[in-house]
Amino acid sequence: MATTELERLAALLGSSTACADEPIRTPGSIQPHGFLFVLDEQLRITQLSENVQQWLGVAPEQLIGQTPTAWLDDGPASLVERLKQLAHDEPHPFHVGDLRLLGDRENLRFACTAHRSGNAFILEFEPVERSSHDAAASLYPLVHRFVAKLKHDASVEELCRFACTEFKQITGFGRVMAYRFDVGGNGKVLAETAGPGYDSYLGLCFPASDIPAQARTLYLANRIRVIPTADYHPVGLRAPASGEPLDLSFAGLRSVSPVHLQYMRNMGTQASMSISIVVQGQLWGMISCHDLAPRTVGLQTRTACELLGRILSLQIEARELQALAERQLQLRQLIVRMLSAMADEDSISEGLKAVPDALLGFGGACGAAIVFADQIELIGHTPAAGGVAALVDQLAGRGDRAEVFHSDNLGIDLPGLPGFDDIAGAMALSISELHPHYLIWFRPEVVRTVTWAGQPAKSLDERGVLNPRNSFESWQETSHGTSLPWESVELESARDLRAALLGIVLRKAEELAQLAGELSRSNKELEAFSYSVSHDLRAPLRHIAGYAELLGDFDGSNLSERGLRFLENIGDSARFAGTLVDNLLSFSQMGRAALHLSDVNLEALIEAIRQEMTPDYEGRDIHWKVDTLPIVVADAAFIHLALRNLLSNAIKYTRGREPAVIEVGTLPGEEETILFIRDNGVGFDMEYVGKLFGVFQRLHHVDEFEGTGIGLASVRRIIERHEGCVWAEGAPGQGATFYFSLPRHSYSSVM
């Protein structure tokens, strides 16, 4: 190696970013197994490689400015015509022909390829092997068999194994391997064919750092690269001093990085050829050919290999598109199952719980969570509800609910989540634009053991110089804390599911809004009807009760004992019906009348009600326990009615208790006042607590305790109109406690 080349290699290796910064497209030199001319638009030589004198016996300076007629021995007119037909947007070289050049001392023919680089023509010349015609003839059956065989191989791995065998036979290289790049750029060897004396790399991984990003881009553009010997001395270009560096991206003779040549020597490889596998416009992988000795690959063989590489790429793409379509179909079927189940149930949550296998299968998950605000439903193997709630808090804090969150390493992406010891991955789907509603899938940790072809980290020597890897012996690395990655098809299907769920939520919201409107209208109609009927029935019922009483007073002596009993029953029934009508009228008015808000002293109100109801419990032993009560903002008349109903019930249902104990107090609340009324009466079974506040709902027979069954319904309506809520606790024979809450905020908007 020349001194200047050693200096260049040392400079390149002196920085950890040298490989990324090296001008590999414009190296300023070529490999020495051929020579190169650069022609301008007038087909005059403007640049050429320094080794033309070795091949043609003509000094480089004698050819500068010459046209094909001066250096081409046969067919210059044909060459000129073909060059003029080269399109500016087609940079890939094509075979112009096998030409004989003037000055060639050995009477050789040279395979000439040409392509454009900007406004220049780049012509490359390589000596034609004497057996090239025989080699070309033998390639056709090999290519034909290769294409025919590809039709029958079912999997990508089988395609790669067959391709390695065929490429080895076509090229004669000692080892051929096919490897695929993962999402991180690391390459894994899927197939290999190697002769005696060659190390096997089957199943091993090569780190992404072995191929810098700009080299990958070049592999994508120019799909074949040949290095006949790793020990070649680069040949410089004779070029004008003021000219721009020549782009040799598509030149077959382009000189490669000295770092890569050292890499080959460290690997024990003297010759190499790489064929890119391109799938859907991305660099999917490589076919890499190695030999322990120098090896020249003729143009015909290279052309055949590039063609086979393109065919292999198309076959792999077809296999992957088929697998993708099958996976998409499977996910769509699972979406249909989930949507169908949700349509059959009253809620999204119930629908998904009805098809747990579809829910978990959709995410390829061990567990899932259905989150509606504070309500969390867990299916399968998941973190505890507290951990899921912590995850939801972090997701809600991210703000972007339109995107599907996914991670195969939660320990890094969302550190500190509690209870995620054996859960490493998650995919979360927001199903509301406003509220923290999520579907979340969980994946367990998968301990990965990767076997590298040598330790992947590059080393620095004592001078801080970056060295290519010099060992390719298998080296294992075990990683923890990650799950299987989320595939792009899964994420896209999750977005489709989200769109469908948002549509369902919107439709259900519209249906509920419509039902609420219809219910509101119906309630108003019922209230109007109830008010009208109640109002119209009051007078007749009073007449019945009054006339029954008058009949008893005036003609009671003429009636038998049986008749008097009947007359008394008529009066009692009329009075009960009148009370019922009065209560119904009052109940209907609660939904129609506006609230008149003011400060209400609950303690004074309780004392006033006790005084009003003294005749109802006169002669009974009742112990009253009334705590200090606050002042609230409410409608005084309505709150008076609610408290009177609750205290009346406490007095009524403690009948027979000696002594009866009635307690009135408050409980602490952050944004509300909570009042309770507790007694030691007959109580009730909590199984029927849902009936307590309904109209005409009674838990005790009318013969035991009188009442119309409207009082507690009135209490609920009053409290709900104040934006509060009411509830109860009890046990048979142990008494009951009734609670209601009143918010502490302003009621100026309440009507």
UniProtKB/TrEMBL annotation:
Catalytic activity: ATP + protein L-histidine = ADP + protein N-phospho-L-histidine
PROSITE patterns: HIS_KIN (PS50109), PAS (PS50112), PHYTOCHROME_2 (PS50046)
Pfam family, one: HisKA
Cross-referenced InterPro entries: BphY/WalK/GraS-like (IPR050351), GAF (IPR003018), GAF-like_dom_sf (IPR029016), HATPase_C_sf (IPR036890), HATPase_dom (IPR003594), His_kinase_dom (IPR005467), HisK_dim/P_dom (IPR003661), HisK_dim/P_sf (IPR036097)
Source organism, top-level taxon: Bacteria
Domain PAS: 36-67
Ranges for domain Histidine kinase: 532-746
EC number: 2.7.13.3
Domain Phytochrome chromophore attachment site as annotated: residue spans: 155-310
Keywords: ATP-binding, Chromophore, Kinase, Membrane, Nucleotide-binding, Photoreceptor protein, Receptor, Sensory transduction, Transferase
Gene Ontology molecular function: any one: ATP binding
PANTHER family, alphabetized: BACTERIOPHYTOCHROME, TWO-COMPONENT HISTIDINE KINASE
Family that this chain belongs to: In the N-terminal section; belongs to the phytochrome family.
Subunit composition and interactions: Homodimer.
Protein name per UniProt: histidine kinase
Organism: Stutzerimonas tarimensis
